[in-house]
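Re: zinc ion structure - here you go.
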Amino acid sequence: MPLTRWLAEYAWLPDHAEPTRDVLIEAEDGRITAVTPLVGGGAPMAGVEVLRDAVRLPGLTLPGLANAHSHAFHRALRGRTHGGRGDFWSWRDGMYDVAARLDPDTYLALARAAYAEMALAGITCVGEFHYLHHGPDGTPYADPNAMGAALVEAAAHAGIRLTLLDTCYLTATVDGAPLTGPQRRFGDGDALRWAERVSAFAPDDDHARTGAAIHSVRAVPAEQLATVAGWADRNGMPLHVHLSEQPAENDACRALHGCTPTRLLADHGVLGRHTTAVHATHPTGADLALLGESRTGICLCPTTERDLADGIGPARRMAEAGSPLSLGSDSHAVVDLFEEARAVELDERLRTRRRGHFSPVELFTAATVAGHAALGWADAGRLAVGDRADLVTVRLDSARTAGVPPVGAFFAATAADISHVVVDGRVVVADGRHRTVDVPTELRDAIEAVTS
Ligand SMILES: [Zn+2]
């Protein structure tokens, strides 16, 4: 790709407490080659010709946003599970109905549309927590990684990067009940066979890579946790795990193992700086210390936790303990990382009845560089020389953002305010429109195909 230049009205640069005005960003072959503040930054004024060539980006330009926790097919459930009462477990029944109806073709169509919605929201990289592996009765497809391959292809069509967090899912309960009904599609039998299947899958495109996941302590027996963790470690891959989303999981784990899920994971070598615990909504104080001391990341999914009546995770205490925080849209009740980010602060306010727990730069970090790191992309999420050329521009002249100082964007903007998205140097969204996918039409058709 040739050299491209952008002139950002404002850009949020690494290690800056707030955005900088008039920044020239240059990229070649998908990498940022220069970042030059035109005023006040000590850099020489760029030549008039250089500026004439540059693509103007009015508003605030951010590095790419990372969605560190996604189940693409849950997008089909938005707005369909709100009629009655219920909780996480009753919602899960509806989710299984959709899961039962997907095959590689319908999954490709649904995920492509869901990922294209993410691109419109400024998400340049997604972590797909993928457990829908096999045919409806648990029989593998001719290609046992056909469903994963569909997700990789979907991300390519949508123009975003993907870490396929292939998920080990073996049992229905903490005490080892077998998978039944729709859950049979998730299982590989045991962790060794899971590792064998995942090892045979290597995306051949630069936009996707694989990682590992343990569904939860409900779904992987204690004696097999180390097999998954060891495989991820040997392959240098990120490892994700749902953790303590529900008090019922804590109770069942205590009853069988005499300890919390976090303690169980720690004892089997699952925690560490390449591991991300998803949710961690109901940890004990000792759990927070184990997570923080091991530098285990925590991915918060506040709009899903809110939607499913899960509770509020102790985000400030997690950060204080030493866990890097990232963000995920999880069930896609909402796909908007601004909303996820500010919810981290606003939920703490509701709980404590005090304001000011997280600074804007902490929320910005969670949505960008920390999320990319959790997904194994250490070279993304910063507007810095050598990083991947991901640029996400937020309008500052919409009804929501007009008059808002750029540093306040995370408290004012929504996904609908994203005007321009560049991923690895390629324009994916221009003037608020996806360049190749008719997102509303494709979402409607793909969801109709698996729900009607
Ligand atoms: Zn999840």
